[in-house]
Each structure stands twice: as structure tokens, then as C-alpha cells.
Amino acid sequence: MSDRQKQWAIGSMVLLFGLLAADQLWSRMVAEPGKIAMAKHDRLIKQIRKTKLQIKGAQQQVRRLKQWRARSLPTDVQSARTLYQGWLHRLVDSAGLEQRVVDSGTPVKRAGLQVLPFTVRGTGTMEQLTKLLYQFYRAPHLHRIRTLSIAPISAGARLSLSFAIEALMVEGCERTDRLAEGVSTVLASPQLRDYRLLAERNLFGQGPRVGVAELTELTAVLKVDGVPEAWFMNRIDDRLIKLRVGDRLQAGWFDGVVEAIEGDEVILDEGGGRWLLTRGDRLADAAALPPEY
Q1: What is the pTM (predicted TM-score) of this model?
Q2: Backbone CA torsion sign across 218, 222, 223, 228
Q3: Burial class of 278 by CB neighbour count within 10 A (0 to 12, 13 to 18, 19+)
Q4: Are 113 and 52 in the same domain?
């Protein structure tokens, strides 16, 4: 090998070692720190996302707690029991249940909340049960029906009902002498009449069952002492109902007020609609009136 070739070989070796040294220096000084920095960056991004989710979850819990406090029973047990038990009495009375009994139990702690148990027992029709459930779930209280027992009486025409109800007392509720006010929006429809099919189902009886509204008939329109009256016959109970303007008519799924009595016709206002009946019509045959009528 000539001297010139030796010089080229030595130069190539020096260049190769220089490149290797530069590559190692690049890896040690730039590439590896860059990888470490990127890994730290990714970990920080994940931690920030996790923290944001935790903050969002905490904010949701704060909002939920605020909503619960707004619907809670008062935190004083005796006050809560008296107020809510009174509300339950009014509920079953409005629904028309008979042989009704409302009891309260000892409060228990569950998941950090005070749970006040109640039991309601009574007898009624499917229409009355439907109305009770409708009014229960339209109420703003922080409560629920834990169990509902239904047993038929008289071939299913009447029902024996038993409810186990739980109402919550949330720490921080500011009300001390009253229940929550307002209307709940958990139901699919705000109108009781939209649940009439449920009320008319024959769950226990033999053969088809006709609802109270189908067997409530406007039998007479007359004047008593100069005052117009509308007489309705409830064929199920064989009961005559005499009403004047402003009186309330409850029959199965229907719950309205007599708005006008003219000639042989009666106009009923159900809140969500106005209905016209002519003497001889059943309540279920009522014709809907336009708002401007």
C-alpha cells in the first residue's frame, strides 16, 4: 500500500470515528433529552386532561348537590316527618283511595344521606292508582317509591295497594318549616289524560274492563232554584253527581271543572283542554273545543 493510500485510509478512519462520536454526542445531547422532554410533555397533557375531568366531575357534583338541597326534606327529622306525612295524606285523599293508612319509620343513613321511610296502604281503582302515581312524580320532592304491591279485590274492579316510599334529607337544605315547591319534569307528559290507557287496562279482572269515564254519563241538564245544574251518573258505582258551574268533576282519568251549562250542553275545563258534552253523552264522548270557542 502506497503512502497516499495509507493517508486516505487513516483519513477515512478519522472521519468515521468523528461521525460516530458526533452521532453519540447528538443522541446524548439532543435526541435523548428530546425524547425525555416529549414523554414528560405527554404525561403532563394526560395529567391536565385528567385534572380537567376531575374538576368537571366535581362541578357536576356541586350542581347535583345544589339541586338535591332544593328538593330535599328539611333536615330536622321531626319537621320532615310531619310535613311529608301530611303531604302524603293529601296525596291519597286527592287520588280518592279508601281505607288509607300513612305511617313513617325510623330514618337511616345511606351513602351519606338521611333516608326517611314511609308506608302507604289503601284501596282504590286503577284510575285512582294512575292519578296517585302521576301526582307523586309531578311533585318536586326528593323521593321515590321503593316498592309497590298491588292485589286485586272483587275480581279486579278494586285494588289493595301498599307503597314503600323513601324521602331524602340532604345536609345543607335551608328550608326548616316547609317542603319544596314547584313541579317535577320527570314524566314524559304533563297531562294526566295522556295516561288514560294505563288507567283503563284490566290487569287483574276477567274479560274487558270499561273505565269510569266510559261509564259516566251526562243524564240531565236542568235548573234547581233557578241555578243550572248538570247531573252525571256514574254507572260503576250507581252514583248520581250533581254539579253547578265551578264545581269539580273527577271520573277515572278525567279531572276538570264545569265551565258553563247552557241548554242541553255542558262545557268542562280540564286545564289542558275544554270539552263539550250534550245530554246523553258519556264523558268519554266529549268533543274537544277550540281555544276561541
Answers
A1: 0.56
A2: positive
A3: middle
A4: no
